[in-house]
Design brief:
Layout lengths: L4 H13 L4 E10 L9 E4 L5 E3 L5 H11 L2 H9 L3 E5 L3 H7 L6 E9 L3 H15 L4 E6 L5 E4 L7 E4 L2 E6 L4 E5 L3 H12 L3 E5 L15 E3 L3 H8 L5 E5 L4 H11 L6 E4 L3 H10 L7 H4 L15 H16 L4
Parallel strand pairs: 10-11, 10-13, 11-12, 13-14
Antiparallel strand pairs: 1-2, 1-5, 2-3, 4-5, 6-7, 6-9, 8-9
Helix pairs in contact: 1-5, 6-11, 7-8
């Protein structure tokens, strides 16, 4: 799984706190068939502990080779500031690095030492993202000094006034309702897509035999869970229990939030019946109109795995602003 910006920033903050230096690599520009978008990051300690991705393997290997033979540290000592490496400028290099045809990447490399100033900045960045707040990392390209700002741009990376302004977004999270087979497949796919996933089911014993590595589970009341942790634009709530005692309790609270996606599994008849019940829970017509039900893309899915594919395809569309 490719690490999110939040995970990478948290990694840097934690390693600085243990007085380790950290290389942080950020894609500034891309041309052609770039494997990763502008703003993607990779972090690595001098002993080779790595998180994140710039290309899916080829550039990472080249980076680690230069890290081990001392080339990167020597270049940093000569420059005395962050420097840009251009990958894939020649056909020979594209072939060596196995980049797609015409693909080029400009990558900014920073060497962050565990100074008090750097610790404070990365702790602030990590805390902001943990609290689901957008934040920008600002790097002075002449001095290497790092700062943070609450203002963010639409573009992931902006270069102005001799500084790189890197707009960071919190990690997206999904709350799944109902410990069943569909939820297992949805959870596995969501984890692969980089979501933080929680499964909630307050019914006695339903969680006893439900487990997916990397998924948090809770038997608390769904409306409390939604209210406390899933009421922001980086959250999605997916009702899969097929039990109004679970699904409706969550939807009652979810449809009043800013969650980017709210859906409920069920047939056309089940969905229509649910829409008739929801006003009795104090929801307005406008709030109910946000609900996606029946859930998922209509691909004639029958099995739990196929339903999960249709659900996560729709979630992806909505997250990307096309659904």
């Amino acid at each position: 799984m490719l690490s999110s910006q939040q995970q990478i920033i948290s990694f840097v903050a934690s390693r600085l706190e243990t007085d380790k230096s950290v290389w942080l690599c950020t894609i500034l520009k891309t041309w052609g068939s770039s494997p990763r978008p502008v703003g993607a990051m990779m972090a690595c300690t001098p002993d080779g502990e790595l998180v994140g991705s710039l290309s899916g393997g080829c550039i990472e290997e080249d980076f680690l080779d230069q890290l081990q033979d001392g080339t990167l540290k020597s270049q940093y000592e000569i420059m005395g500031k962050p420097f840009t490496v251009r990958y894939g400028e020649t056909e020979a290099e594209q072939a060596r690095l196995k980049l797609p045809c015409g693909g080029q990447l400009h990558v900014l490399l920073e060497y962050n030492e565990p100074s008090d100033a750097n610790k404070q900045v990365f702790d602030y960045l990590a805390s902001s993202l943990e609290n689901h707040t957008k934040v920008s990392r600002i790097v002075d390209l002449e001095t290497g000094e790092i700062s943070a700002a609450d203002h963010v741009y639409d573009d992931a990376v902006v270069i102005e006034g001799g500084k790189m302004i890197h707009s960071l977004s919190p990690m997206y999270q999904l709350l799944l309702l109902g410990a069943g087979d569909v939820a297992k497949y949805v959870a596995e796919m969501a984890l692969a897509l980089g979501y933080n996933v929680t499964l909630c089911d307050p019914r006695p014993k339903y969680l006893d035999n439900w487990h997916v590595d990397g998924v948090k589970t809770t038997s608390r009341l769904p409306d409390d869970v939604v209210r406390e942790r899933f009421s922001n634009p980086y959250s999605g709530i997916i009702a899969l229990a097929h039990d109004p005692r679970v699904d409706d309790m969550a939807l009652m609270e979810a449809l009043k939030t800013d969650a980017f996606y709210i859906g409920a599994m069920g047939s056309e008849r089940t969905s229509a019946a649910r829409r008739k019940r929801l006003p009795e829970l104090g929801l307005t017509k406008g709030e109910i109109g946000v609900l996606r039900a029946p859930i998922g893309l209509q691909i004639q899915s029958k099995t739990p795995a196929e339903i999960a594919i249709s659900v996560m395809a729709q979630v992806t569309m909505v997250r990307n602003g096309v659904g």
